[in-house]
Amino acid sequence: MVTHPKTDEQRQRLQEACRDILLFKNLDPEQFSQVLDAMFEKSFEVGEHIIDQDDDGDNFYVIERGIFDICMRVDGIEKTVGAYDNRGSFGELALMYNTPRAATIIATSPGALWCLDRLTFRRIIVKNNALKRRLYEEFIESLPFLTSLELSERMKVVDVLSSKPFSNEEQIISQGDLADCFYIVESGQVRITMKRSRDEEVDIATCSRGQYFGELALVTNKPRAASAYAVGSVKCLVMDVQAFERLLGPCMDIMKRNIANYEEQLVTLFGNSTTDIEEKNL
C-alpha cells in the first residue's frame, strides 16, 4: 500500500481539493482515506507539460490551484480545446481504459496538483467502478438519448457519473447560475420552472426516471435558463461539464433536437423563446 506522509495542513488542503471530484464520490470512507494517503503534491511552472497526448498514463491529477490548458492534436494541428481554472481533475481515461493520453495539459500559470499513481488508481477506483457498472448497466442502456453511443462508450458514461440524493422541494439547479453539471433522474420526479417575471415562477416540465435536464446551458454555453426542484425524494446521476463534453459529443444532435422542442413549448407558454425570456429578466 503506497503512503505519502502529509502534515495536517497538507491533508486539509488535499481533502478540500478532492471534495467535488466525481470519481471519488462513490468510494467508501476507508477507500477514500487510502486514496488520500497515496496522493502526493507536485508544483508546476508556466509552460510546463503535465501530460502529453499519446503518452502512456502514469498518474491521475487533482488540481489544487492554477490554470491549465487542454490541447489536442487534430489532423496534425494542435488546438486548445478548453482549460481548467483552479479546480477539477484529469488523466483518468488513460488509466481506466489502458489507452494513450487523449490530450496534452499545459500549465498557463504557476500551479499545484495532487497526483495519484496508476497502480493505486486501478486497485481502488477502477475496481470500485466495476461494481458501479454492474449496478447501472441496465439503467444506462435503457436511456434513449444514449442510443447513438457504442456499448463501450455508454459504459464510460457510467464511470463518470455519481449518484446524488435530493429531498422534497430541494433546489437542484437555479435559473441564472453558471452550469457545471448535467443530471439524469435515477428515481423520483423533478419539476422544471422558469421565471415569467421577477416575482412569478412557472412550471414548464416534469422529468421522471431516465429523463435528463441541465444540458441546455452546457450545449449553449449560457447561464441556466431554468430552475429544477425535487418532487418528493429524488436521486439524480450527475456528470460534470468536462466529462459531458468529452463523452456525450455524439449525443449532441439528439440534445439539440430536444432543445428545439423546449423552444416550441416556451413559445406556447410565454409567447417567447429562452433568449427573449433571458433578455426580459435581465
UniProtKB/TrEMBL annotation:
Keyword Disulfide bond set for record: no
UniProt KW Nucleotide-binding keyword: yes
Protein name: cAMP-dependent protein kinase type II regulatory subunit
Organism: Hucho hucho
Residue numbers binding 3',5'-cyclic AMP 2: E215, R224
PROSITE patterns reported in the protein's UniProt record: CNMP_BINDING_1, CNMP_BINDING_2, CNMP_BINDING_3
Entry keywords, A to Z: cAMP, cAMP-binding, Nucleotide-binding, Phosphoprotein, Repeat
One Pfam family recorded for the sequence: cNMP_binding
InterPro entries documented for this protein: cAMP-dep_PK_reg_su-like, cAMP_dep_PK_reg_su, cNMP-bd_CS, cNMP-bd_dom, cNMP-bd_dom_sf, RmlC-like_jellyroll
GO cellular component, one term: cytosol
One Gene Ontology MF term: cAMP-dependent protein kinase inhibitor activity
Family, as annotated: Belongs to the cAMP-dependent kinase regulatory chain family.
Domain Cyclic nucleotide-binding: 23-142, 145-265
Ligand binding (3',5'-cyclic AMP 1): E92, R101
Function: Regulatory subunit of the cAMP-dependent protein kinases involved in cAMP signaling in cells. Type II regulatory chains mediate membrane association by binding to anchoring proteins, including the MAP2 kinase.
SUPFAM superfamilies reported for this sequence: cAMP-binding domain-like
